[in-house]
Fold:
Amino acid sequence: MKQITIQKAGAKVWRAKLTRPFSIAKGQHDLLENVLFWIELSSGARGFGEAAVATHITGETVEETLRHLKETARQVPGRNIPEFPHIAEESKSRLSKNPCALAALEMALLDALTREKKMPLWRAFGTRVRTLKTDMTVVLGDLFEAEAAAREILKRGIRSLKVKIGRNFDLDLRRVATVAKIAKKCPLFLDANQGFTAAQTLKFLRELKKLKIKPALIEQPVPKEDWEGLSKVSRDGGILVCADESVSSFQDAKRLVRQKAAGAINIKLMKMGLLGGYEIACFAKRHGIKLMIGTMMETPLAATAAAHLAAGMGGFDFIDLDAPFFMAERITRGNFVNRAGLYDLSKISKGIGVLPLEA
Ligand SMILES: [Mg+2]
Structure:
């Protein structure tokens, strides 16, 4: 590839209202407040990336992410775009405590490169594109909210549901029972976001069994550093355990395999970057670990970038790319997911296919 250099780059805070607070065991998003990062090549092609900041989950903040990406924007001009793996690698240690910034940088680099090469991003990860059907989340709330959310999800045509749990044992049990009753034949994914202990989780699962409810999996039941608890639930819970917060690096994925701590990993670009996510997903597949593709609170830009990874690689068992459904405002253009949760990237001719509205 001829010399095509990065000419300009920039970063800015990106906000959008949500349809409702996205509430989980560790806190909530009242607003989408992310950082948009962009680059422009000497050929004129542009690339966009998004850092989805989830302070209550990862401790990263909008201020530091903006600062890091503005710093990055000063460093990358002059670099040759085909050198993107080196540019990402060099930024890795600087952004090690701010992985969502790394995700935004890698996303913008790969978006620009694949636009330049006139190929869709998924082609970087595989030879054919798969359609993906996402689940949709019933966030924490009261019983009535759970019921209304489940009905709304089914009405859209979505047929797998993620139910957030982990804050109030008894209420959560009743919420799951309510959702299970409404969404009778749909697979249910429970996500405690680190809210329970192993003993509480096992008790929760026993109570569900009494009610004849069999969820398809339980995600991150225990605190992320409680590997023993995670293993215990995997061993004794009689259910597939999916690690989310516990796995945010290749090291974590290796540990999970070594300790047989969980049977599935939730791959999120914001935890591990785009290239790291790919690497971990390949490693997990080799070791028979099931894969979920997930997001933080992301616009269609980052959510579609994640969809490209899963749709190109294939082999993702669980699709959790519903964040755009919680946005009350449109701040992007290019939409490749329908109301019923079907992601179809086959019409995308170059890049991620989604642009900021102002671009
Ligand atoms: Mg999760």
In short: The longest strand covers residues 6-24.
